[in-house]
Amino acid sequence: MAITVLIADDQAMVRQGFGALLGAQTDISVVGDAPDGKVAVAEAKRLRPDVVLMDVRMPQMNGLDAARAILTANFDPPVRVLMLTTFDIDDYVYEALSIGASGFLLKDAPAEELVRAVRVVADGEALLAPTITRRLIADVTRRRNTVRVAPAPALGTLTPREREVLELVAKGLSNTEIAAALFVAEQTVKTHVSKVFSKLGLRDRAQAVVLAYESGLVVPG
Questions:
Q1: 138-168 b/e with 16+ CB inside 10 Å = b?
Q2: According to DSSP H, which parts of the chain are helical?
Q3: Residue 134: what pLDDT?
Q4: In whole angstroms, what separates CA 27 from the centre of its chain?
């Protein structure tokens, strides 16, 4: 079945351009669009798309609040949110990852990256463009200049290998890259990742990265 997508952006040209690009893919169907966050939430509830492309800055309700409303609705199957931003360093994006957005994408990313992003997010993965994501998390964490919180108690439930896998996830590595780094099968990595998410109560890789940085398991820089 085709991946269904809702595009939320206050610029009509962006909605039309992204819509035409994604609609041209045989495995993707654009089912709707929204000019602001309030409409995006209503349309997400009505259409239940697989993925919502959500601009960060919009009128009526900003993308962060709209993403929170969609993600806390706990739709089944889940509606995944991919944030769109003009800036590569943005506090709003960090907060979006914290509440469960599946990642972010720069608006000026190449067309093939947008298509890949939608497919990856629809498949349950997160944190696209790992090198940009690592820099985002590291820079925002550093600029927040807050006292580092104590390690999450649940981290103590992880086995040494699971902690190792979590660290590599937090550094932006894909399952394939983690398998190569640890010299294990990719299916083994998927099993470890699944157990980590279950033990820590995480929705996806985005929340795993945030937790790893906030707990001090991974240090920015």
A1: bbbbeeeeeeeeeebeebeebeeebbebbeb
A2: 12-23, 37-47, 63-71, 91-98, 111-122, 130-144, 160-170, 175-182, 186-200, 205-214
A3: 59
A4: 20
Tokens representing residue 2 in the block? 């085709």
| Structural tokens at position 169 | 């996830």
Spatial distance between the Cα atoms of 53 and 44, rounded to a whole number of angstroms: 11
Q: Half-sphere exposure of residue 38, counting CA atoms within 13 Å on the CB side?
A: 3
**Contact present, 9 and 20 (Cβ < 8 Å):** no
pLDDT-derived band at 146 (thresholds 50, 70, 90) equals low
- pLDDT value of position 5: 97
- Mean of per-residue pLDDT scores for the chain: 83
Closest CA to 66 of 94, 34, 88: 34
Structure tokens belonging to residue 213: 């940085």
Tell me, rounded to whole angstroms, the distance of Cα 29 from its chain centroid.
Answer: 20
**Which of 128, 124, 134 is closest to 203 using CA atoms?**
124
Distance in angstroms (rounded) separating the CA atoms of residues 206 and 12: 29
- At 161, list the tokens: 């290998």
Q: Please indicate whether residue 60 or residue 32 has the higher confidence score (pLDDT).
A: 32
Residue 216 falls in which region: left (phi positive, over 0), alpha (psi -120 to 50) or beta: left
Instruction: Please check whether residue 215 is in contact with residue 167, taking contact to mean a CB–CB distance below 8 angstroms.
Output: no
pLDDT of residue 86: 76
* pLDDT tens, position by position, 106-145: 888 888 888 988 988 888 776 545 555 556 566 655 655 5
199 CB-near residues (< 8 Å, 6+ apart): 154, 157, 158, 162
Higher-scoring residue by pLDDT: 121, 17: 17
